[in-house]
UniProtKB/TrEMBL annotation:
The keyword Hydrolase applies. One of its GO terms (molecular function) is dGTPase activity. Residues 48-229 form the HD/PDEase domain. This is HD superfamily phosphohydrolase. Keywords: Hydrolase. One of its GO terms (biological process) is dGTP catabolic process. InterPro entries: dGTPase-like, HD/PDEase_dom.
Length: 352
């Protein structure tokens, strides 16, 4: 197996299988992430121009480490996966780490709510993902979580959709599409009849957890480094090596060894500090408001196109693109497209 190296400013050299680089990373769909800002912090922190591309590489790196440590921590009676089965689970988890943000809208979280602009209930992206996965258990679980107020973030749903459409050769069966999509959305298995469902849920939590996961771990470290915001130090090696899958009341649960307790506390503190002092800073919120106002105006203008295609939709994120008639064609939608379209739409920028 040959590898290609990516130099990350935090983790050093990251090895990625050459086949994965050529089939995913080198595609226009994934390269689009170079043009999606990781955060909207630039008005307050001028150096914070890092992108979703590098963040995705970082999450992939942390995810590989986390999976290996988690599996080694399993008790022998839980290691009942066949060798080929385990290899496939690991492959799908790593793909989810790499592709978890591939469906982000321009300006990341600032624009993702526009994926829900249709009036259907549940939103069209839910029904689209269900139709792509084609698994009855996945359908039942998604409907259950949605009805009980545990909806996935719009960009998570769209990332699954973009991945399953653009990179479909990597997902041959409904089971593969099911587990991959759960890792990104955080929809854990509720079906206790599925083999090792509780262990699979632990793997899902490694990428999407309400408290600590490799996605959150990377962006906390990366945001701190690029903004210069002085927060607590996070020893990611220590917390990853502290991952454990333990048994409680007959169920496998994800936890951390006591030696990683201080780092767990630091991660929680750093996350809360970033939300309080950066994400909710008045300057950041005002920029967020301006951009959302502009994007809603653009979306409204393009929604009147004779083609009936929405501006913020799957088609606009792909290389094939979406045709809006006399308004032109949009493909690989990114931040700069919003700036260029905003100048042509009257009334998109409120007076300061």
């Amino acid at each position: 197996m040959s590898f290609k190296l990516f130099k990350d400013p935090i983790y050093g050299y990251v090895e990625i299988d050459s086949k994965l680089v050529s089939s995913i990373i080198d595609t226009a769909c994934f390269q689009r992430l170079r043009n999606i800002r990781q955060t909207s912090y630039a008005p307050l922190y001028p150096a914070s121009f890092h992108n979703r591309f590098l963040h995705s590489i970082g999450v992939y790196y942390l995810g590989k480490k986390a999976f290996n440590v988690a599996y080694k921590s399993l008790q022998d009676d839980d290691k009942t996966f066949e060798e080929d089965e385990l290899g496939n689970i690991k492959r799908l988890f790593e793909l989810a780490c790499l592709l978890h943000d591939v469906g982000h809208a321009p300006f990341s979280h600032t624009g993702e709510l526009l994926f829900l602009a249709d009036s259907s209930n549940p939103p069209a992206i839910y029904t689209k993902l269900i139709s792509l996965v084609e698994d009855a258990t996945f359908t039942a679980d998604v409907e259950h979580y949605y009805k009980n107020g545990k909806a996935a973030a719009p960009h998570e749903m769209m990332s699954c959709i973009v991945s399953l459409v653009t990179f479909k050769e990597h997902f041959q069966t409904p089971d593969e599409r099911d587990f991959f999509s759960r890792c990104i959305t955080g929809f854990k298995f509720r079906n206790t009849d599925k083999k090792n469902y509780d262990v699979l849920n632990c793997f899902i939590e490694l990428l999407n957890s309400p408290i600590i996961d490799v996605d959150r771990l990377d962006y906390i470290i990366r945001d701190s480094q690029t903004t210069g915001f002085q927060s607590v130090s996070i020893d990611y090696e220590r917390i990853l090596n502290g991952i454990r899958i333990i048994k409680k009341d007959g169920l496998s649960l994800l936890g951390f060894h006591k030696s990683a307790l201080s780092v767990v506390e630091n991660v929680i503190y750093a996350h809360d500090s970033e939300r309080k002092w950066i994400q909710n800073h008045p300057t950041i919120l005002y920029e967020h408001f301006l951009l959302q106002h502009a994007m809603r105006s653009i979306d409204k203008l393009f929604s009147f196109s004779e083609t009936g295609t929405r501006f913020f939709a799957l088609e606009s994120l792909t290389i094939e693109g979406a045709n809006f008639g006399d308004k032109g064609k949009i493909s690989l939608l990114a931040d700069e497209d919003i700036f260029s379209k905003k100048r042509k739409v009257p009334g998109t920028c409120p007076e300061r």
